[in-house]
Structure formats: C-alpha cells, structure tokens
Amino acid sequence: MINILALFQCLQPLLAVTALKQFSLIAFAMLVMTGRVTMLSMSRWAGKGGSYRTVQRFFYTKAIPWAALFWVFFQRHLYRSDHRYLLAGDEVVVTKAGKETSGLDRFYSSLYGKPVPGLSFFALSLVDLSERRSFPIRVEQVLRTEAEKVASKAKAEAKRQKPAAEKRPRGRRKGSQNKSKAEVELTPELLRIKGMVAAQLELMTALLPLTYLALDGHFGNNHALFMVRQCGLHLISKLRCDSALYFPYEGPYSGHGPPRKYGDKLDYRCIPDKYLKETRVEKDIQTRIYQAELLHKEFSQPLNVVIIVKTNLQTGACHLVQQPPGVALRPVD
Asked: Does the pTM exceed 0.90?
C-alpha cells in the first residue's frame, strides 16, 4: 500500500487529497482481488477505508481527468527517452446483463463471434517497440447515438433481404461517373476515434512526437486511412489476405488517353524475389517477408505493403500469415 501511494504522488496536482487516497485503495484492491471486477468486489478487498460507498463516490466523481492521469503516470514512471513508441487503438467488449447501465447495447465480440449485450470501450495505448509492451493512456466508453443504431439495423436488414446477385453485363453502367477517393465522409465511429486521437496527440506531442497509429483489420480501408492522415499520422493496419493489389505501371505511354496507373496484379503465389526482405526457418516452417509499394483500387494513394508468407517445408503447404492472415499496410510518404 505504501509503495502504491509513493507511485501516485505524481498525480497530486491533478487529484484532491481525498480522491488520491480513494484511488490508492481501489488500485490496491484491483491488484490483489480475484474474480470479476465490480464496485462490490473492490470494496471487499480494499480493506479499511474502502467501503462500498467510498468506491461508489470515487467513480461518481466527474471531474477526474483520466487521460491526464494516465499520461502523467506514464511520463513519470514508464517513459524512456531512448525507446521508440507508436500509438495503437482497439475496442473491447465486456458482457453485461440488465437494462439500467449507461451505454448498454449490443456490440460485436470477437471472442463470441457474434453481437452480445454489454458495454464497449475504445482504448488508445502507447506501444514500446523496444520492450514490446503496451501502456493504455486513454479509454472512452462507446456510446452509440440513435441515428447510428437505426443505420446499423437498416444495413443489417438490407443485407438479410438482398436477393441473389444477378450476373451483370460487362462494362460500365450507363450514366455512372467517377468518384474521387479523396472525398471521404467519415462515419460516426471514425469521427469518435479521430476526436480521441487528436486530443491525445495534443496532450503529449510536445514530449513524444508520434508517426504511426496501429488499428486492427476492421480499419483497413480508405475511410480509416483518410481519418488517420487528417490526424497527421500514418496508418498501420491489415488488408484481407486475398486483396486485389497491383504494381504501379512502369511501361511506355500508349500515346492517347490518361497515363496508365495500374500494372500487373500481384500474384501471392509468385511474388518477385526483388521484394523479398527477410527469410528465416524455425521448426520446418519457413517465413518469408516481402515489402513493396502497391496500389489498391479502393485507396486514394499508394500503400507500403508488407506480406508474410509461411511455408511448411515438409508438406509444402503455403499460406499468408499475419495474426490473423492479412496484409499490413500504411500510406507511402
């Protein structure tokens, strides 16, 4: 308990003395307790001075600047000036029953593989590339508006009632026009994440300038890339392992029309050796890492793509891998 109080002394300018003591009791309880973390279970493990009402009053306090607390604690005890960091974001869903909890809704959970009733939180973390450790620095609850819920239900209903796709004739539909991929309208989800990222960068850029924001494969699209570039960062995410990628065209000009942009389509089974960056073998599994500047017809700019190919040397089985299978991407400077 004394050690926790010593660590929390750096938070004194941001917290009142009473709130700091309550925070210390709650942190101690969360470190030693077992089972699900609730206010009742924390009060049972907090010891003297950590009654249920004390825990309740602490979490009902609206003036606690949580993002500033996380940043000050990281800056004082965890930051290393000689280490490299990147910003990462992810959403976590916690199952919750009942009807009265604020923000209770149905969210997709990757653990269950389906939407479940519960609470959703989006977290931003600083990842130490030297020690391969992650430090959460901003967490906000996802509160969907009524407009988002209606739009989500309408999209699901349209997908469910969509008839079998009819075979379209070749060529372009009559009257269709080109659409600029640079003109993107951000969804409420992306606007929410953009606000979090911008606020966090404003808080810490003076000490820790960042270059990259890592997001999961859900954000491997042009809209998310546009949002990240608006924040002044580069996106690290994943594409589908069967994404249609093209080499930039390097041939001669045909003499008429606009210059050709797309060259040959990437064949994942036969990637040119000039793009091979690393090869290693572990337990009869050969890992080959390729890197190339490629084009995707849904993105407004070239992508710096990393492809990981793993081959079983005994059976010859070969597939793309990247936890889960996919292709990493970020925009080319």
From this structure: no
